[in-house]
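Re: [help] complex structure
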Amino acid sequence: MATSLDSHDQPKGPASNPGNPSLRHGGPTDIAVRLEGVRKVFGDDAAGRRVARLIDSGGAAPIVAVDSVDLEVRDGEFFSMLGPSGSGKTTTLRMIAGFELPTAGRILLHGEDVTAVPPYDRDVNTVFQDYALFPHMTVGDNVAYGLVVRKVPKGERQDRVTDALRMVRLEGYEDRKPGQLSGGQRQRVALARALVNRPRVLLLDEPLGALDLKLREEMQIELKSIQQQVGITFIYVTHDQQEALTMSDRLAVFNQGRIEQLGSPADVYEHPATRFVAGFVGTSNLLTGDVAHAILGRRGSFTIRPEKIHLGEPSDQAGDDETAALGRIRDVVYLGPDTRYIVELDAGARLVVTQQNLATTSGEALAQQGNAVRLVWKRQHELAVSDGESGPMEEEGQG
Ligand SMILES: Nc1ncnc2c1ncn2[C@@H]1O[C@H](COP(=O)(O)OP(=O)(O)OP(=O)(O)O)[C@@H](O)[C@H]1O
Ligand SMILES: [Mg+2]
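Output below.
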């Protein structure tokens, strides 16, 4: 059974080999979290639900929020669940935390079936998007709260709070109230409040969602380095593909309650399995049907990443290992370091091309609108994608 959180008092410090369980918890498995055929239907599972916020469906059709999800998260891994709004990320996270009971399937934490175990008996902590700090309590008291509840002696409590605040670089802020902090600092307090419990698994639901872009990018790097430092398994929910690609060891792409693809950031970006993944993680740039046949000489659906396409003069020639397509620049979007060109192909599709502005000024880039061009790319960058009806893809089945 998941032991009380207090029992994990092993010294912190770099988890030099987070994949090796003997260095950390001595468990028999290096799988931290395992989901087996997990399904969640709202409005139809009165028999077995633990729902804090169920809204009576009023006779409406049940909602399948999560549909037969199989998943293994390794010990010490930074794992992300990426997907659009409503794709089932939060529901999956809440089932791992124990706030929702699956309609079907099993959840294992470090090899133990916790499907029916309440949240407070699971060795996990959750950081919510809205932080949920107590506004009337100081930073120190906010961070200490979980330890007070579990009656950790005062001296040890103080040490652990100091430790946790140092980890998130907020030493010296103990006596402030949340209202006296910036958004990024509040976010770090929320993180410290979870880390202080030393959970084996930390669940984070869009924790950076409320921050502006610059702060979010800083916190992404910081979160990742904290995770590497403490060696705790992080399961991170986001709808931001850039964030997931930046931070994760591996990620699962959710769509309509299912996992469409699971793999490393490079796997998922360089070998998207389905049209959905190609479009959600990156720019879709799809060639299908007759257009694919006309340009590539093949039938099927293909995607080409915008940065792999070279924008040239109509007279440019393609090499043996390359494909070329004539078109016209419809739109130019200047982005500072790069420019994005939207090109209407003569054969009938539209492709986005990004080029670094190595020597190009914004004026030169924008002046290209309306020009006839020849797009050239290497054949190896034509990625075949399925239409996604075949269900979830096997992990690391690609490339
Ligand atoms: N308590 C509930 N009662 C009924 N339906 C719910 C409940 N919670 C979630 N749903 C539905 O389940 C589906 C998945 O919701 P979920 O919150 O898991 O999505 P999400 O991927 O986290 O989306 P977002 O990015 O918007 O947070 C949605 O269709 C949602 O409306
Ligand atoms: Mg959500």
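Residues 49 and 101 are 5 Å apart (CA to CA).
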